[in-house]
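Handout, page 2. Input:
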Amino acid sequence: MKLVRLLFFSMMFCIFCTPLIAEINPFYAVIRIQGTINPVIAEHVVNSIEKATSEGANFIVILLDTPGGLMSSMQDIIKGIMESKIPVIVYTSPRGAQAASAGGYIMLSAHISAMAPGTRIGAMSPMNIFDMFASKEKGTNEVLQRKITNDAIAYARSLAQQRGRNVAWAERAVRDAISSTNIEALREGVIDIIAQDINDLLRQIHNRRVLINGRTHIITSVSSTPREYPMNWQQRMLNFFSDPQVIFILLIIAIVGIGMEFKNPGMIVPGVVGAISFIIFLMAVRVLPVNFLGVLLIVLSVILFILELKITSYGIFTIMGIISFAVGSMILFDNPLPGFSIPWTTIVGVGVCVLLFVFVLIRLAILAHQSKVVTGHEGMIGETGTVLRTSGKRAQVQVHGEIWNAKSEDELHQGDKVTVEKIEGMTLFVRKID
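Output:
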């Protein structure tokens, strides 16, 4: 009977006291957005918001430092913030950080927006890939760009209206690409707080009221402990390989490695390295928008470089290959946003490495295949020797300091000079040299 009572009181304690223990040890979630915003980061932020909510976090702090990113990924993050059941504070930090382009929209969507000293926000104009190249249908591109811009303005205005922020500033940040410092943003009513650090932020948001799905929520930040929500190893790996420069280098390694394996079957190492690089490249293509015309131009450039070694074109193939490589590298990614393009320094550096590789290593390989064999039986073909003794059309000849049995269609005499035409077993077939 005592055992039953003990079990009963233990169960009651767990049911009624667990919420009290959670209240005694409150925590807030910390999520980091650093670098270019892509689908991997968006998935991480949305999942972390859902996880923090289910685990009972009091509120969420997103530490933001980004030059911008993909519009679709930005919208996924904003949807996660807008649908959150607990307050989301977006804090542009550390000092010197930025909330540019897509980061500005995320700041507008937060329940509370804060910035550290020395940070900036703005430059939220959408960029259109068609503006990078001249087009005969200039009017069509202008209409398309105007539609994209007006849609982005409406989106920024709706976020500012939802959170009670400066709608006029949001419109100018999109239409005129203006940027503001943290002090200017606070004065313009774009953000709510300037915080020196995370502790100052927690002090200022304590007892603040925010509206979540029509209900007022009071933030309690005193005595809250942080709980970090980092990326898992799969997300970190995908995020690393979503860097355009990494993808670009992987593509070059894949093209050169697989090309060498096709040219010289059995080398194994270049083929394996190239195949692995190509698989990782395909995995990264799911994250970033890759222009396959750029891929084809880069492949064409490598083919032209190799043709230069085999066909005398007086440098024409090389020039065409350099042009094809440069153009393909520039249009490899269908997004001109910051962080989604390949710097010229990388293009030039990789291009020089490819040229050196093709014109040094591959040239040596081609010359090795074309050169005459100098060892083994094959190395005897074409060599000259001296007849030592004869017996009809048979003879013994000395070649390379070795004495061989030989046959010939010519009449041979001692001391005649002969050249080796072929070898069968241990017998040389020779021809007399006049």
